Give the backbone structure.
Amino acid sequence: MAAPAVNVDAMGAALWEAANEGATAEARRLLDAGAPCDWKHAAADDDTALVRAAAGGHSDTVELLLDRGADLEAKDHFGSTALVRAAAGGHKDMVELLADRGADLEARSLHGSTVLIGALRCGCKEMVELLLDRGASLEAKDRNGNTALVRAAAGGHTDMVELLLDRGADLEAKNRFGATALIAAATKGHVEAVKLLLDRGADVEAKNAVKQQKLLVLQNPRCSVAPIASVAVEAEHGGF
């Protein structure tokens, strides 16, 4: 007697649910029964089981799926791979696991967010260091032309700005609006980031292409090391 046909959608959905919950034993049972590894859940942004497990930080489930042939570079509806989702979720160990398995460090979502920028946005310095150690590009840009340094400066993440500069990030890189890291930090009112960038030699005469306004840096008589009292920029957000 022929074996009963496998209901691909039902099995795929069950595997997706197991991956979502990090239920590795159930995922293994379903895979053994013929569940398709790369089935996409149309009602959940077209996530595959791997993308969903990575987004949830379920390392054991991710390893199982990869061992069973899951597509490491499968993308969700927004173009994000498992690595992009793991980085955005702040899952450092998951990022390391996926990088060890050969995930593309330069993968990006449809919005242009890179793995490195995702790690910056969640504020995980150790993850940023890991990605840089593995060779992630310092100068990769999102859809608005922001490098990791510009995004870190716009977010006021001074520790990240320092790390990126120490690793050789281009201090004068501009986004598509003409804003440098210095303009980004000043526009958002992040004085400490501005001080750091100026200490590192950022161009005080940098101009934003949108408003063509000069960055104004005023002397601070109370600070002999970094003479900055206030920073004023007459510019709009410029895509940060």
Summary: The chain has two domains: 1-134, 138-240. The chain is about 45% helix and 0% strand. Residues 138-240 form a domain with the Serine Threonine Protein Phosphatase 5, Tetratricopeptide repeat fold (CATH 1.25.40.20).
